Amino acid sequence: MTNSAKTPTGKVKKGQVAIRVDSGSIKACFPRSYCNKGQIKLATGIPLISGWESTASKLQRRLQIELEDGKLDDGDGNFQLGRYNDILSEYGLRARLKLAKLQPNSDDQLPPKPDLSLMEVWGNYCEYRKLSLRESTFKNMYTGSYSNFLESAIEATGSEDAIKIRSWLLENRNQKHVREILSNLSKAYKLAMKNKLLTHNPFEGMAEEIVNKGAVGRTQGEIDTENDDDILDRTKAYSWDEAQAILSYVELNCSHWHNFLKFKFLTGCRTGEAIALTWCDIEWDNERVLIRRTYDRVTKKFYPLKNDKTYKGKESRKFPMPRDGEFWKFLKSIPQGQPNEIVFKSKAGKTIDRISFCNAWKGREGQNKGIIPPLIEQGKLTKYLSPYNTRHSFITHAIFDLGIDEKIVSTWCGHKLEISNKHYQDVAVFAARVNPHLPIMGSQNSQQQTELDLLKEQLRKQQELIDTLLKDK
Description:
By secondary structure, the protein is mainly α. 42% of the residues lie in helices and 7% in strands.
């Protein structure tokens, strides 16, 4: 069934070229009166993603001129498909149209269906998934990073061959994302086959064949580095002394970043979560901070935390803030704003931009030295780690230096652990009573409580409650 979406230029006059969504792809529709073979619909190679209308408008104007100049007609009423392909090439489009003889068109006979390009298949799939994905995920990953990766692979290989695309991605991009791209590509081709647009899925099974062996040739800015897979790797964390050196340097040299950075070091929260913190998230009476939103720089919107198994159906994490402790005093030192006002702002008093913070962290050639490079030069740090590794630093400090049980730390920070739902809830109760900035049991040398110790503590308290209830009867 033909999609009734309007063309980019609005309602098309009779006898004019129209470019619109038709049968799941963007096609150029030529007027019936132009060719003695009836109306002709041809793929344009324009991917069906956000912003396609701009390219479609330019192509429509060009085709209309060509039509009126008679350059798309061989003089005998036959459509010049070769000329049409040349025009698409000028616009950097690939419709992979076959130079087949057009057949007369009637109500029950359509012109031959052209092959779809890889990016057309991907664009159709993105449009199909649009409403089922979080807006930030759709824009950042599907029409952002993933689309860029595929375009880079096609350009680098000069081909849309599935094996060549797969090989290039594995050699140049993060392996986790390559698996996700190939998996979604396979689904995209299955969707096209379901809609009878294609008959073959060249990417079927490719994602499952990839084994974990790391990433090769990654370029900065193309890979999502906020990954918790290596959260307990101490080589990817600054020591607590190094963290203090960073904070001291920031306080002296770029103080407007100090509070934001200290909050990240003291909580281990993600950058977007720290940006999204508002004053109503700080519950002074309950002695805790709620981490319940994140900020996305692309859409410039706030979103609730992902409702995955880490949070057990809850929309927030609860981070302890013992009264008059280090964390409490730190937040009290910040001038308080209105309940719905964000706590940490940029130097201009606006929402913090993650890229600006990253540039301040690593420095920009010819503009600023940054925070980390000077400390490495001074010998106070031994390596460069990304801003996200403030999270690693807090988590490894809490577990390995302070002896706090890993399961408790995971309830504060939201990284995943393979534990049962029941035990996770038990640990969450205990976690609310632990000071995240002091050694467990008040001794720097004491060992972290074992899982058995935690369960015994819960059983003891449950027995006390049962005894109390029996006495009251």
